[in-house]
Amino acid sequence: MASQSSIAIPVDSPFSLANIPFGIFSTQSQPHPRPGIAIGEHILDLKVLALEGIFTDCEVTFPSDVLTHMTLNAFAALGRPTTSGVRAYIQSLLSQSSSPLHSDPSLLERCAIKQIEATMHLPFDIGDFTDFTSSKTVSVECVDDIFTFRKDSLMYVFHPPRAASGRVSTILPSGIPIVRPFGHLPASTTLARTTGFSLAPTNELDFELELAFFISVPTEHFERVPVEKTEEHIFGVVLLNDWSARDIQIPETLPFGAFNAKNFASTISPWVVTLDALEPFKIEHDIRRVPSYLVDEGDATYDISVSLKVIPGESLEREMEMTRSCLRNSYWTFRQMLAFHTLSGCRMRTGDLIGTGTLSGEDATSLCSLIEQRKHFPNRTFLQDGDEVVFTAWCGPPQGGVGFGECRGVVLPARSFMVKARHPN
Amino acid sequence: MASQSSIAIPVDSPFSLANIPFGIFSTQSQPHPRPGIAIGEHILDLKVLALEGIFTDCEVTFPSDVLTHMTLNAFAALGRPTTSGVRAYIQSLLSQSSSPLHSDPSLLERCAIKQIEATMHLPFDIGDFTDFTSSKTVSVECVDDIFTFRKDSLMYVFHPPRAASGRVSTILPSGIPIVRPFGHLPASTTLARTTGFSLAPTNELDFELELAFFISVPTEHFERVPVEKTEEHIFGVVLLNDWSARDIQIPETLPFGAFNAKNFASTISPWVVTLDALEPFKIEHDIRRVPSYLVDEGDATYDISVSLKVIPGESLEREMEMTRSCLRNSYWTFRQMLAFHTLSGCRMRTGDLIGTGTLSGEDATSLCSLIEQRKHFPNRTFLQDGDEVVFTAWCGPPQGGVGFGECRGVVLPARSFMVKARHPN
Q1: How far is CA A137 from the centre of its chain?
Q2: A129-412: CATH number
């Protein structure tokens, strides 16, 4: 692959020629969502390229109309040999001097859009959303707060692996503001104590820094996917903020799991970094005591670093340290998650999203949620109205050129709630 | 409404003129799924009626092409005033002597299909699936088995209301066989005890008899729906079997909730009984101590009876008693469920499915899952391969003519699992 691109790429861009992440975007002049890839500070409009027949020269044969759809589902469902070939062809279009992007300036003008002029949408029509629990630290740190009843061991928390279905309708692309949710909360006032509950906006709004992967090729009903076949079903990876209201979560979790505490919003980064882009960053996963069907030896995971910061809204005096962690802190690999998920025969559909769970590490600067951070920094507050949470992720060294961009969300105040006067709580 | 129909209706049919449930069906000669209503032992093909312009005489104006779609989503999204009007018009088509169904025998021949010649499909493209916990009995009976850590009170189990997101990709229409799932189970053999877990098919496959309702008109992100507005967003009701593997569920539930224990399959009855059909069966809901935003006075729920039977596969000697219960046993009304669900601002989309949870009553013949029944009938076994589970539901007296049809599923043996020899468990 040549290092020159027909579109200028800043050296510190997360979207180098080595990346080529896929997403769905629209522009003011063309508001219909369509597929693109991110390159430097631009988007390459794949619909324009498809409609102009540019993909007829691609080495892999595929129905290029899938690149005119409003989601990536049909494209990803073609499977990795095809999507890898298309990605490689896009790299060659951008880098080779014989490419029409080099020889036809008007084509380049039609298909290169500045990212700041685009609106990003959800990359997939998401059928199901699953969120795992993968961080040893989360499990240990939070056991006191949320899971008060049993603290046996890590073996207990990870065997069987733990995951939950999540809400799909409220998965949002980066940048959409989050309205502070109301909750049916445990009694905290004298009046409420007489009834046992109160109605109030959450006072403990939190984030969870995660990665998540999208399913490409679907599976059949009651089909299991062995670990070594899982990558055939994974398209790529995004950042995920699994917004959580801890005061709503605690009573819900005993004994049924979080519901309203998490169903109001989850935010993902809009650019899907493919397994092909991640391939050079494969690393060995710590060998752990797992049942044979989950054994995942060799380079089974990826060297992906993640970071988060909270940009305070009004109370600017609050501390604002950067948190850094990495995918290594996940107890399970993506492959193990998918193998476990299908152990029951649970069907996967193209566009299903599977989150890692909070990626906290062991030291205090790598804790990926406020509920954990507050154990080490008691003065740190939960999210205030106006706070913006920003996640980033990248592979290898900071200037490796394979990054995830940002996953952002700002907190808006709760919407007022008219309580019927005759039944005060 | 006249009592005569252009299509013969057996007196004990659940699908009388007073019902008119909507569903999606196909036939061998026309395999494209399309909307229909059930009437007696027939289906009225709404796509044929729409394409022939029959709905131009309907009192409500609506885009009748929605009745040519492969799902009911676009139709239901029109909202209750419209869908009620269409249902009333279909009743008049069937009952009035001036109707083209009476005057044009060839039209009747083209649009009346025998149910036994049709294949039923999922009625909606389901975006999200939520399952509540509503039965006092389940909560109390099963506390010992599954939720060992705390038994405070019913107040504890229902405040806040408890619900969980469920798997959408494995919701199946009645009649699709269920493959017994494998599980990552707690140690039960000497060898497994050394590693703490074993890999085996579930030995405790169970059913849960529930009702569930479909969302019609969607809500906005972060919009709350007050109890008194909820019916504007509910299209109708089906039976739901939330298949559960109890030995997989118990370790998963502590502390994160069921996952593989329930994600392999859920079965629904294919005919959606509308709120209009249920309206004559409205009854008062027991007044319970609830926060003001959940107060639901007046005729807030429905007199719906449910029953289940297990038809044994091979071991015919097993007992086979009928279980009967009713929606009255639900702690929450449909309206309260939807109001609570949107308290956080969780967005609803057309086709979202919300289950009541197991509808067990207080006596031993009204327990709607085997895990509960086994407390009273210790010799009753969990489901065996070949067993078929059949649910039915009806309104008012048995011959009221407003029934739900059946929700059926037969259990198939687990599929063999090749475990890598070098890592025996």
Answers
A1: 20
A2: 3.90.850.10
Task: Tell me, yes or no, if B60 comes closer than 8 A to chain A by beta carbon.
Answer: no
Across the interface, whether the CB atoms of A159 and B245 are under 8 A apart is answered no
- Considering only CB atoms, A345 lies closest to which of B179, B195, B422, namely B179
Inspect the interface and report whether the beta carbons of A255 and B149 lie closer than 8 Å.
yes
Query: What's the confidence (pLDDT) of residue B150?
Result: 44
The tens digit of pLDDT for each residue in A72-117 reads 999 999 999 999 999 999 999 999 989 999 999 999 999 999 999 9
| Per-residue pLDDT, B68 | 98
Does the structure show a pLDDT above 90 at A367? yes
Share of chain B above pLDDT 70, in %: 87
Question: Strand locations in A182-259, DSSP E?
Answer: 182-186, 197-201, 205-206, 209-215, 234-241, 244-245
Binding annotation of B for Mg(2+):
242, 262, 266
Asked if B163 is an interface residue toward chain A (Cβ–Cβ < 8 A), one would say yes
CB contact under 8 A, A248 and B341: no
Establish if A410 touches chain B: CB-CB under 8 angstroms. Answer: no
**Beta-carbon separation of A346 and B264 below 8 A:** yes
ipTM of the complex: 0.93
| Long-range contacts formed by B393-396: CB under 8 A, 24+ apart | B393/B211, B393/B239, B393/B269, B393/B304, B393/B305, B393/B306, B393/B307, B394/B14, B394/B304, B394/B305, B395/B273, B395/B277, B395/B278, B395/B280, B395/B281, B395/B302, B395/B303, B395/B304, B395/B305, B396/B280, B396/B281, B396/B303
Beta bridge partners, A267, equal A172, A241
> Is there a contact between A198 and A189 (Cβ–Cβ < 8 Å)?
yes
CB within 8 Å of chain B, chain A residues 365-394 = none
Q: Tell me the pLDDT tens digit for each residue of A132-146.
A: 998 876 555 454 444
**In Å, how far is A19's CA from the nearest CA of chain B?**
31
Does A249 carry a binding-site annotation?
yes
Considering only CB atoms, A291 lies closest to which of B167, B195, B251, namely: B195
- Domain borders along chain A are 22-121, 129-412
| Chain B partners within 8 Å of A340 (Cβ) | 184, 260
Distance CA A284, CA B411 (A): 40
Contact B415, B326 (CB under 8 A): no
Candidate from A167, A195, A221 with C-beta closest to B291? A195
**Does residue B237 have a pLDDT over 70?**
yes
What b/e sequence results for A45-62 when a residue is b if at least 16 CB atoms lie within 10 Å of its CB, and e otherwise? bbbbbbbeebbeebeeeb
Is the pLDDT at B149 greater than 90? The verdict is no
> What residues of chain B lie within 8 A of the CB of A160, using their CB?
183-185, 197, 248, 251-252, 260
pLDDT of residue A320: 65
**Whether pLDDT at B161 is above 80:** yes
Interface check A159 vs B, CB under 8 A: yes
pLDDT in tens, A380-392: 899 999 999 999 9
Q: Give the count of Cβ contacts less than 8 A between chain A and B.
A: 230
What is residue A255's predicted lDDT score, i.e. its pLDDT?
A: 64
Q: What does the angle CA A143 – CA A145 – CA A151 come to, to the nearest 5 degrees?
A: 25
What pLDDT, in 10s, does the model give residues A111-125?
Answer: 999 999 999 999 999
- What SS3 class is residue B136? helix
Instruction: Give the homologous superfamily in CATH for domain B22-121.
Output: Fumarylacetoacetase, N-terminal domain (2.30.30.230)
Judge whether A145 is closer than 8 Å to chain B, CB to CB.
no
A131 is annotated as contributing to ligand binding? yes
pLDDT of residue B86: 98
> Is it the case that residue B89 has pLDDT exceeding 80?
yes
Q: How many helices (H) and strands (E) does chain B have?
A: 12, 24
Question: Which residues are B25's β-sheet partners?
Answer: B34, B120
